[in-house]
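re: ur question from yesterday

yeah so i grabbed the chain u mentioned. its 203 aa long if i counted rite. heres the sequnce exactly as i have it in my notes:
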Amino acid sequence: MRERGWSLDNPAYLAVGQIVAAFTNIPLDRVARKTMNLRAAMDEETRTWQRVALVAGWDTWSVGLPYWGLESTINREKKDTEKAKNQYIIDRDRIKAKGFVKSDSKEKPDGELGKDYYALEKWTGVLEYWVKGEPKKKTIKYTLEESKTANNPKNQTKFDSIRKKKKADQVKTLLELGLNPKEVRDLKYEKDRIEKILELMQS
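ran it thru and got these structure tokens back, copy pasting raw so excuse formatting
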């Protein structure tokens, strides 16, 4: 319905006619069907015997034609879709050859990635974003100097092992070490949570 817009091939007209007929008893749906039958009878893709049957009162579905819309319209849409699909493949391969990869996000890239990207529309109408290089999640590299508990060189290894855990596991550890839920919520950043865990483990 979205693709066909105001075209008479849009099945929305029949749907509206059926709703009006159901609530007001005004047979708009029959008017819509008769109009479609006459249009189908004049369509270039319709065979002679189908034209005769349509004029005689048979509906399009009974003579092997689309339930709604013209055969020529459907064939044209198939060709347009195939053409768009082939063009998408050409554009995609061209972009990939330049070292771009499809972004996981459906939104326009910003920040560093936003400096170099392609917006590519698929044949389905969905917009894709392709960014330079492999899009990676921002990671924080902690150094010994950044850690409040950096007195022991082994702390860096502990720091990294805790960082690999999920946030839920870090929160669970903090609660087990004696923090209350409010104190845990105050630790907004991962770095703060990890440092607090190390601090409590050493106390």
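noticed a couple things. Residues 142 and 157 are 11 Å apart (CA to CA). also The helical segments are 12-24, 28-41, 48-55, 71-97, 154-163, 167-176, 181-186, 190-202.
anyway ttyl
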